[in-house]
Amino acid sequence: MSQQQISLPAKLINGGIAGIVGVTCVFPIDLAKTRLQNQRQGQQVYKSMMDCLVKTVRSEGYFGMYRGAAVNLTLVTPEKAIKLAANDFFRHHLAKDGKGLTVFKEMMAGCGAGMCQVVVTTPMEMLKIQLQDAGRLAQQRKPGMMSPTKLAATNALLSRSYNSGPVTSAPQAVSATQIAKELLHTQGIQGLYKGLGATLMRDVPFSIVYFPLFANLNRLGKPSPEESAPFYWAFLSGCAAGSTAAVAVNPCDVVKTRLQSLNKGSAEEAYDGVLDCVSKIMRKEGPSAFLKGAGCRALVIAPLFGIAQVMYFVGVGEYILDSSPLRLLSA
User: Fold this and answer.
1) Mean per-residue pLDDT for 312-324?
2) Distance between CA 273 and CA 103 in Å, rounded?
3) What secondary structure does DSSP assign to 163-222, as a single string?
4) 53, 154, 195, 204: which could form a disulfide with 259 (CB 3.0–4.6 Å)?
């Protein structure tokens, strides 16, 4: 089934299901990525991805690996749906007389998709990072391992960025909704869009690399120009293109993570913007700091986009629309 024949509602459903399935499978690795990227030299709590996951389970319990997953699962559906649907939309309008797109036009379509998705991506990442990084900050302050029953104390670290006065009562669990309300109340809508520039720096180049690379890799698996590549080839192409693009833009992801982290550990400095962040990381931690979490990010992104392409191949969205009253939407 060609991309042009798939209706917009079907694209949204395919992208949404792929996002939910993918995030559920790889979220612990994404949590490890965030914590590794936020570590400073001389303050390392974790030595590697596996070390981070083991310490997280020991100190926060199994579900500690899914801190921030709720906000990601809620917003990943529109985020992935917008990204994939926007790319198809731009590819369709850049194509002339049904002819294939040049690599440059494929890159332009990817650029448009990346610019569209940040409307959802920026606030989603902003909220997710605060929840993911709370455990790292708690372990940094307490050399000993916490028991799961003491995990509530980590939420005090989240609270201190949103409350002007000292905490006078026992710390309560802080949710993404509470963080969003506090940011809107104190900073307005721009509070949720802190790090927008860095998010654009990451997502636009990612889409410019990913979509043309996937299209050309997937084309290699077609038995003939008129036939589609087998589903396993679509999955492998999505994984290969996703992991390549993820590693290529990892320096931008490190900068975005640092800028969006409102809570700082002891001796962790704040940044005044993208250039200030890049300058301080380069001066104090060296070029290798920009590759922190690159392996984790590749492991997160590869299955996310591999699953997304399989959703397109199988036609889950089309099946749902054809089997329910929602089919009127695709008319």
Assistant:
1) 76
2) 33
3) -SSPP-SPPPPPPHHHHHHHHHHHH-HHHHTTTHHHHHHHHHHHHHHHHHHHHHHHHHT-
4) 195
